[in-house]
């Protein structure tokens, strides 16, 4: 791994994400602008709902999504779930940096939902799963391959394995009017719409990111 190929975000040690300072000392996945775009959209929806939502940031990585929600949505209670011990440590660091009150958050060591208590139900689940097709590895930027965690990037079966496992179980963790916000690769849009119908979700609305690419879906229980 060449140091001169090190991503700039790792060199500086942090990024700004939706008004939050997100440290990257544990070399977790670097938050992307397109993720920030849909996170801001989710925050607007949650603020407009006017409640004190229970939120799950799953596949949390740095914790950037859930921390932005906790900081921007008054009274939100936010849980974080990730399987990577580096990510869990990074989440705790970033919660502290952003002065998020400890009684509003819980951090779970969890392989998707295997680690989230069965009784936990959420008004919103925000998910940025690994979704890069391993067959496209040669199209991924070299600095990403060399330095960012592959577990957070790649998933089998055209990049859909983690998404399918997530959607199969997530509905059981939603409150009656709960929503999922799910990031995906633009080529996966139709697969995800079909998957949501197969797993019994009532409505799936795909949206484009700031670059005009299909990037995330709002999925109703």
Determine the mean pLDDT. Answer: 93
Strand order of the largest sheet: 5-4-3-6-7-9-8
For the biggest sheet, the summary is: 7 strands, mixed
Spell out the CATH superfamily: Vaccinia Virus protein VP39
Notes on the protein architecture:
It is a single chain. This protein is an alpha/beta fold and 221 residues long. The protein has a single domain, classed as Vaccinia Virus protein VP39 (Rossmann fold, 3-Layer(aba) Sandwich), CATH 3.40.50.150. Helices cover 33% and strands 24% of the residues. The protein has 8 helices and 9 strands. The strands form 2 sheets. It has a 7-stranded mixed beta sheet, with helices on both faces. The protein has a two-stranded antiparallel ribbon with strand order 1-2. Strand 1 (14-17) and strand 2 (20-23) form a beta hairpin. Helix 2 packs parallel to helix 3. The protein is globular and about 50 Å long. The mean pLDDT is 93.
Tell me briefly what this model is.
This protein is of the alpha/beta class and 221 residues long. It contains 8 helices and 9 strands. The protein has one domain (3-220): Vaccinia Virus protein VP39 (Rossmann fold, 3-Layer(aba) Sandwich).
Offer a few descriptive terms.
221 residues, alpha/beta, Rossmann fold, 7-stranded mixed β-sheet, two-stranded antiparallel sheet, 8 helices, 33% helix, 24% strand
Task: Draw up the topology in text.
Blueprint (H helix, E strand, L loop, with lengths): L7 H5 L1 E4 L2 E4 L9 H17 L4 E5 L5 H9 L4 E6 L2 H13 L7 E5 L12 E6 L14 H6 L8 H4 L1 H10 L3 E10 L5 H10 L4 E6 L5 E7 L1
Parallel strand pairs: 3-4, 3-6, 4-5, 6-7
Antiparallel strand pairs: 1-2, 7-9, 8-9
Helix pairs in contact: 2-3
């Amino acid at each position: 791994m060449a140091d001169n190929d090190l991503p700039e975000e790792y060199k500086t040690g942090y990024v700004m994400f939706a008004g939050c300072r997100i440290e990257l000392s544990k070399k977790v996945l670097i938050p992307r602008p397109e993720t920030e775009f849909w996170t801001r959209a989710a925050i607007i929806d949650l603020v407009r709902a006017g409640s004190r939502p229970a939120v799950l940031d799953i596949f949390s990585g740095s914790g950037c999504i859930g921390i932005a929600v906790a900081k921007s949505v008054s009274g939100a209670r936010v849980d974080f779930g990730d399987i990577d011990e580096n990510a869990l440590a990074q989440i705790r660091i970033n919660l502290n940096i952003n002065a998020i009150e400890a009684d509003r958050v819980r951090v779970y060591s969890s392989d998707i939902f295997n680690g989230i208590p069965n009784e936990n139900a959420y008004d919103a689940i925000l998910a940025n799963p690994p979704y890069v097709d391993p067959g496209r590895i040669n199209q991924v930027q070299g600095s990403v391959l060399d330095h960012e965690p592959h577990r957070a990037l790649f998933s089998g079966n055209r990049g859909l394995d983690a998404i399918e496992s997530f959607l199969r179980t997530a509905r059981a963790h939603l409150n009656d009017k709960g929503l999922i916000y799910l990031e995906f690769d633009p080529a996966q849009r139709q697969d995800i719409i079909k998957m949501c119908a197969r797993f019994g979700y009532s409505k799936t609305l795909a949206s484009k990111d700031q670059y005009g690419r299909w990037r995330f879906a709002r999925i109703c229980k």
